[in-house]
Fold each of these.
Amino acid sequence: MDAPSSQAAGLEAAFRELRPDLERRARAMGAVNEAEDILQEVWIRLRAARAPVGNPRAYLYHMVYTAVLDHKRGRRRSSARDGDWVQTDYGGLPSTTQAPEAERALIARETLAQVHARLEALGDPAAAIFRRHRIDGETQRHIAEDLRMGLSTVEKHLRRAYAAILGLDGDEA
């Protein structure tokens, strides 16, 4: 009965003495942020250890090694599990990557149809100037020269087109 308690006390004393080295070992193995957690696990495990240990230093280093590997495996399993869950439509819920995509496409088509209808109702030259400037990328100056009108007239037609697209009266533009 006396040997196990002195054995545990010896392991605990070795742990306290080697703690900074054990923490460096855990960090060196890649457990930079988890080193404290790993040492806590090692402490709990060694408090439960009852077998005699011939070389406490080697035993503690091996315990840190095992705990770091366990943490890495756990993170890998957790990451794989989370990845699988995301790929199976968020745990059985409707896929959020497909529904909004289709909805966005439908909204975009409807909006484009409204813009087209408003431009058609506006008529030329405002609709044609808007298309040449905003869709074809022509400069206002080039359009003004081509249509033989002043730059301010082209700007006026663009303002009318913008107002029509936004559903405003021509007076508000």
Amino acid sequence: MGTATTGQVILVGGGPGDPDLLTVGGLRALREADVVLYDHLAPLTCLEETKAGAVLIDVGKIPRGCQTAQTDINALLLEHAGSGANVVRFKGGDPFVLGRGSEEWLACAAAGIPVRVIPGVSSAIAGPELAGIPLTHRGLTQNFSVVSGHVGPEHPATTVNWDALAKSSGTIVILMGVAHLQEICAGLINRGLDAETPAAVVAKAATSDQRVIRGTVASLPDIAAAANIEPPALIVIGAVVGLDLGPAIPTTATKE
């Protein structure tokens, strides 16, 4: 009787949405996968590159919509890899930047499943860049911070040091924070950030629906509300937002 073989899990970062921003390694992993667990922020057109017979499983977590519990995702990874399949966990952005990739890695490692990661282009960097906002610029700032805004500064569950952010001279990038934009901006101002600091929201970055809304920390919440900005979106705060780099050449995803 033969010994059952164990498959593997590859955590693939799909980038911010434009298929062109998926890495060569990520594309190769998709083409070789027996099973792909994907979420809605990954570039889904890349699933067309999977081989015939590959099993594609939607495990997305849509805000205020369909949700797949992380424990269920972990269980699916273990089930399919444990039966010998080559499994890809296809995620938007980068697996280890507010993406729970490390939780999936730990679950696989605890079960003795081989696991590796293929990093992706994080929206924390790509989103501002595609909006013409550099995160650093000589003479303005030499550092940037990336934080989660899934809860606001006054929420007891936050672990972000909002006091330090408000006093930082660097660029602030806030992911998953548009629903709490008013609270975040007010919280930063109350902690000492200049209310006139340039700020922007970049919505649906790297897609044909990308929108960029600019203002100041004080004015941005009202401007974004009037523009009906909805997730996915990120917030950028700092002097670099005030730079005018001029119109960018559209990416593949934004060309007509």
Amino acid sequence: MSRLRIYDDANHEQPLGVFTDHAAIATELNAIGVRFEQWEANQPIQPGASQDEVITAYKGDIDRLMQENGYQAVDVISLKPDHPDRAAFRAKFLNEHTHSEDEVRFFVAGAGQFTLHKNGKVYEVLCEKGDLIGVPDGTRHWFDMSVSPYFVAIRLFTNVEGWVASFTGEDIAERFPRMDPHASASAAAS
């Protein structure tokens, strides 16, 4: 189940609010300029589908976002718990960073946790199958795929070179909860 927990950025112990309803999550995130949508495939996707098959299944929504926001590239990334470099991939995203372009991810399968740091608050967003999150350029955030990652995600970029981060050097990400590995395991079962 998708979830949003909001914290004061000085207190990682007690959330100020917890939301599991998609409309409520979208409303809270929209208030800070973050896009949160639900997408459905326009055709069935088989396990092991190619990148082109996955993109084709969501072509209408992808084309809409590309036209609205000028995204120039789209790809599909997939990670499973048995990937030999999973720890290195996870570590790459765990520290607070920003981008000079939007970070847009749609979860075709599995789960991942985006944590955003904005206006003195921390917004922890557990994204699961069917969720799209669009983090605006310049937004401080980090991403956790858990110690046992499982996800297939469509990524949209304005920079055709893909993911480029500027790390803030702050240690805030270390003070807030990491993704529960059971979240990605339960998402893998769905």
